[in-house]
Amino acid sequence: MMPQPFRPATYNMGNGYPGLSGGGQGMPGSMTMGSMGGMGSVPPQVTSGSPMGPMGTVMQAPQQPQFEQSYIENILRLNLGKTGTFYMTYENNSQWNAKVFTGVIEAAGRDHIIISERSTGQRIVLLTLNLDYITFNEPLIYQYPGVIGNPGQGR
């Protein structure tokens, strides 16, 4: 049995679509992929939610300023090098239920904060799971959509 040669699919556009009556190969009134009035054979890449114009063209949305979402790790990353007092609670701990740490913010991740104590030079990894709140004795840098100004920059 001989393999059959590839044949592009044809679509009958019928009389209900003015201006799309054919021009492709095949039967009259049919159209092959890519023969739609010189539009090319590959449709444009469209991302989900892209606005479309009246002729099916993709419209470019205006660029929005990029802000990180206001998660605690992002706020702490904006304030690396600042000293904070971290209030932590440890449930079901027989030695201490609550503990306070003071140190310079060195790094912050999704589930942890790394601080260093100036007096000892010791680095401490704190889990945000146990974090109650943090206090600072200086202005913080804080960027969030809808917030005007940046207190850490003297505005």
TrEMBL record:
User: Which protein, by its recorded name, is this?
Assistant: Spore coat protein GerQ
* Domain of life of the organism encoding this protein: Bacteria
Write the record's keywords in alphabetical order, separated by commas.
Capsid protein, Virion
A Pfam family reported for this protein in Swiss-Prot or TrEMBL: Spore_GerQ
Q: Which InterPro entries match?
A: Spore_coat_GerQ (IPR014099)
Q: Which NCBIfam families match?
A: spore_gerQ
